[in-house]
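User: Some background: our group keeps a shared notebook of sequences we're curious about, and every so often someone picks one and asks for a predicted structure to add to the entry. Today it's my turn. The entry only has the sequence so far, pasted here. Could you supply the structure so I can complete it?
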Amino acid sequence: MIARKLFIGLAALAVASPDFAFAEDATVEVQVVDAMNKLFGAHAGFRAFHAKGIVVQGSFKASPEAASLSKAAIFDGSTIPVTVRFSDNGGFPTIPDGSADASPRGMAIKFQLPDGSEADMVTNSFKVFPVSTAAELRDLFLAAAASPPDAAKPTEIDKFVAAHPSVAAAASTLGTPDSFADEQYRGLNAFVFTNKAGEKQAVRYVIEPERVVHLDPADAQKRDPNFMIDELKQRLAAKKVTFTLKAQIAAPGDPTNDPSKPWPEDRKLVSLGVLTIDKAVANSEEAEKKLLYLPGQLPDGIEPSDDPMIDVRNGAYAVSFSRRNP
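Assistant: Of course. Here's the predicted structure to add to the notebook entry:
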């Protein structure tokens, strides 16, 4: 029921024309972005997904334990500048922050390395991804777009959710935080760390705030439409915000090729270091247009797992970037 309400809500807000062109012979990455545009409409200058957000800056300093897992430069213990974008769910640039459809929240981190290169980390507040493949993700958005409030029952989204239990499982983990700073974020794709001894370990990222605070849904919907963005600006004007970056350690047999399958919660968590955010970017909307976060943009010492969704996300994000920056 939670999943159905979430995606029906998105469909009810959709502004796209029913005759939106959809190229079935396009790559699956293009099809995914086309499906997002079909559901949300295409908004010039904005991302196809996670359209509404705020850009902030800070630094990351790794723990000693991080270097034992990976030889990556971001884990060498030096202070690494970062540019972080927090965002609401969906493709609507003006979605109210308190809407149930504004979850999951996104947190994307760009590490600026000493040699001038960059490394990215893309996370969100899902504890598990709704679907396993790019084709299913495309079909999820298309089903929501084909399910307006007056659609005959069962709607296309009803049928999709019934056939994909992982959608409800993902949606059931969501809440509306009182702040972007008071939410836990996860990297649902698995990555492989390699340390200086050549030892490899599959991990998934967990980003822990100082505390997690979720609002009552009725209270959240009464808040100002931009309350989370405004709150973060005000908070950063008064003090720094910190998160702890952790690695969830895979055990033998844990699936690394399917982001819809969670690893057991009792898997070991290793602290990788502290992320400190100290200021909001002055002109966030302009900064957002220039930022491209790619899950597969990785430093030596971190490599993709066998999860095909990493490459799909790279491709889809690049397509979305090219459309907002023609």
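Suggested note for the entry: The radius of gyration is 19 Å. The CA atoms of residues 110 and 120 lie 5 Å apart.
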